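hey so u asked for the seq, here:
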Amino acid sequence: MASPIETVMDGGDRKTVVTLRPVPQAADIARTFIEHRMLVMRRPDLVDDATLIASEFITNAYVHVPAAEFFKLMLCWNAGSPLIEVWDPSWTLPKPRTLAEGDEFLLSTSGKGLFIVSRLAQSRGSRRIPKAKGGGKIVWARLPPE
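ran it, structure tokens below
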């Protein structure tokens, strides 16, 4: 595996990528990384939301893609609007749960992470990556600009 942290230019955007092993501590590492980057980018107002989003995405990858060798956590900065992305090797897109599920949703002790992310993020989604570009999928959330 290459360096666990790399910064790349993606068009005009600066993107920092962290490669994480599928270990229980991966969500903690993701939270620490995102907190640090939000503070460096002078967005302390987003620390709590951004760390929760990253933690949810990494935890979902860890739980739902147990055979993965690694995940990638990416933070892209575009005009003050952070974009958090997590790549994993599975093509299965997440299925967010909704309040429309009634008591099953409300009484459940799991499965609410993407619902929470949808409330914190300005926008969110997921997309498959073509096999020619490495395959897998990316889940993403964009936070509000300054």
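The first strand starts at residue 5 and ends at 10. The beta strands are 5-10, 13-20, 71-78, 81-88, 123-128, 137-142.
lmk if thats what u needed
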